[in-house]
Every structure is written in structure tokens, then in C-alpha cells.
Amino acid sequence: MTKELEHLFIKILEQNQQKLFRICSVYSKNTEDTKDLLQEVLVHIWKSMPSFEAKSSIETWVYRITLNTCLRFRSNDIKKQKRFISTNNLNDFGLQTEAENEDQREKLVQLRNCINILNKGDKAIISLYLEKLPYKEISNITGLSENNVAVKIKRIKKKLLNCINKTL
């Protein structure tokens, strides 16, 4: 691999490591599994670097590899997985970015549990949404139209709110 690709890989890692970790955590059981999955994602990114054709942004390409790797990783265990999600966009679910009180912490736990029961596609979409990716980028990553992404996010939010309200 050329020095240019190595520098690009390091730049990708520096700019996206935490986001990739959070996405991986949606598809893994615990911190150790998340680290293993992130390592697998990084290996796939590294191996794919020479074939990047710049048909999309590098970030979109990286997220696509991440989601595809995550969707293949332990697909039989997805319903049993614990979740760690970014606190971005939590206001959509009546939560603040800092769980300031017991009620907030309980709602955050419920949100994680509710995300846990979503199907693979919905988990992918909501995890990208929680990372504050624009609908257009989610569209590029998932292959859905931008309008379809918007509709799905609205429906997923409704499902999650209903789920949270049922369990509280």
C-alpha cells in the first residue's frame, strides 16, 4: 500500500474512530465484542482502500463498509445485544444529552432496549441518524432514496417512542 493510502487511512481513523465504535457497539454484546468488531471493520477498510473509486465521499464509503461488516457480524445474536448509542439526537426521544436524573437514565436504558428489538435495517438507519448524519448521506450509505430515509426515520422514531412509553 502506498504512503498516500496509509495517510488517508490514518486520517479516516482519526476523524471517525469514535463514530465507528458507536456504530459497532449497536451490533455487539459488550465492549470486547465492540472492539473486535471495530477491528474487523478497520481491516475491511484497510483492505478496500486501493479499490476506493471516489464515487461517493470517503466518509460515506467508510460508513457503508462499517454497516456491511456489522450486519454480517453475529447476525444470529442481534436480539440479545446490549446497546451503547451516541447521545446525539436524544431530544427526539424526550431525552437530554446528559442523563441528569434517574428518570432520564431510565429512559436512556429503555431507548437502548427498544433499539435492540428493531430489525437490522432500522437499526442501521437509526444508528446513522443518531450520529447526526444528514438524510442524503444515510441515503448514500443504505442505498435508499433520501425520501425513503426520511419516512423510515419518522416511523422508527414513532416505534421507539411507543416502545419507550410502553415500558415505562
UniProtKB/TrEMBL annotation:
Pfam families given in the database record: Sigma70_r2, Sigma70_r4_2
Residues covered by the RNA polymerase sigma factor 70 region 4 type domain = 109-160
Q: Where is the RNA polymerase sigma-70 region domain?
A: 13-74
Superkingdom, taxonomy of origin: Bacteria
UniProt KW keywords: Sigma factor, Transcription, Transcription regulation
User: What Gene3D superfamilies does this protein's entry cite?
Assistant: 1.10.1740.10, Winged helix-like DNA-binding domain superfamily/Winged helix DNA-binding domain (1.10.10.10)
Mind telling me which PANTHER family this protein's record contains? Answer: RNA POLYMERASE ECF-TYPE SIGMA FACTO (PTHR43133), RNA POLYMERASE ECF-TYPE SIGMA FACTOR (PTHR43133:SF45)
Q: Which family does it belong to?
A: Belongs to the sigma-70 factor family. ECF subfamily.
- What is the name of the protein in this document? Sigma-70 family RNA polymerase sigma factor
The species this protein was found in: Jejuia spongiicola
